[in-house]
Design a protein that fits this description.
alpha/beta, binds adenosine-5'-triphosphate, 6-stranded mixed sheet, binds magnesium ion, Rossmann fold, 17 helices
Length: 502
Amino acid sequence: MSYLLMQSITKTFPGVIANDEVDLSVERGSIHALLGENGAGKSTLMRILYGMYIPDHGRILLNEQEIRIPNPRAAIRLGIGMVHQEFQLVPSLTVAENIALGYEPRRNGLVDRKTQRLQIEEILARFGFSLPLDKPIAELPVGIQQQVEIIKLLFRKAELLILDEPTSVLTPQEVESLFKVLQTLREQGKTIIYITHKLREVKILCETATILRRGKVVGRVKVADASEKELANLMVGEQVIDQVFPRSQGVGQERLTLKEVSALDDRGVPALKNVSFSLRAGEIVGIAGVQGSGQSELVEAISGLRPVKGEIWLNGRRITRASPRRRREIGLAVIPEKRKEQGLNLSTHILENVVSTRYYKPPFSGWLTLFTRPAERFAARVIAEYNVAAPGVKSMVKNLSGGNQQKVIAGREMIDQPEVLIAAYPTRGLDVGAAQFVREAMVKRRDQGGAILLISADLDELFAVSDRLLILYEGRIVAEKRPDETAFEEVGLYMTGHLHAG
Ligand SMILES: Nc1ncnc2c1ncn2[C@@H]1O[C@H](COP(=O)(O)OP(=O)(O)OP(=O)(O)O)[C@@H](O)[C@H]1O
Ligand SMILES: [Mg+2]
């Protein structure tokens, strides 16, 4: 008998059937993959299981008992926990305080810190974690923060853990540690539901998978019996996913040049150190590096969001101190790393989001007016060409699925054929088909003479589309390599500081 059974779950939002008679069954002590295109209904189904949404109808059985989950607190009481993509940690509190938050053991009404500490240490020992319990969350890398989220669930005695695209924010090294953690949890009898777009992860981790398409279950498979290709076909239909791209056919003028650029990070510590390179028309330059090597500061420096020493030139003009808007005017487009803070305004609709970076230019704007027809046409084009699942141009961005939010930004920045594009993690959160589309769009733009700087945590992606790779390590460019002449492992060694330039 299944440990978890969800039966005929239906959930509608205005204009959208997010889940349409969905059945899901999961065995105890297994890792079950929940797969499907952007907007297929994965997060919605899991939010129902975690008590964040109430389904229109359907039943949920846990251990053969029908249960009701009116809110997350009830889910936790039933042993169900969820790690969201945006972590729910308090940056200023320590690891231990975060783990126990809201569930502190008490004695005579007061928090019993000693018992709390013992309980946490016991969990760490049992599952083989080691965490700096007294450090504030803000000082820890993302991979460790995610482990804190997982321990938090175990502290609340979760038996069923839901992870929604846990690896999209992790470096390859952190992904490896997460896999070990999840495998240990399974050995100890925990049950895991794992949402991902990465089929390699499914093959490594999961026993079974359920595939959703447009809100409906289109398949349930034993992972061992299906190839990555078959899984991809189930997800996106019979599309051909081709990973081989042609290289640059020749480069033109310098479009973007950095000369001895240095910058500080948010804490005032040097994060970029004398970075010099140039990007030419007709090439894609990939930036490889472990997370926190200066990528964020590099993108912000070029976009005009972070002051720098040194010089930055764009299309033959010095823009070192130019405003972000001025840079856009002379040909820069940016897909930023933090889509919710720097890329989108969640509290408004798609239309306003896609014209926000160009509202001051014709055809959108004339003398003190914003022309709505061209704006609507533009937004409709982004939705159509980038296959954004949304009822219309006036759909609120906060109601879009994660991947569809990413498509809105990618479409807005790429659709007008920018001369220079800075693409920071452009395929993060996209399903295999959409990621392929964005990679093809970058290659196409390059072949028409665009200059693209691609920042990615996915080495496969960097190798697939880059003409040159620059490797960032501790804020410096330590190597430049051609992907066709370089082994994966060699780049890995530069990224981790085991190989040095020279
Ligand atoms: N609160 C909401 N209001 C309106 N529509 C919503 C809401 N939440 C989700 N939707 C819609 O329901 C559909 C399913 O979204 P969901 O987030 O479950 O997709 P997903 O499979 O997780 O996609 P992704 O891979 O992009 O994260 C989408 O069309 C989305 O726009
Ligand atoms: Mg989702």
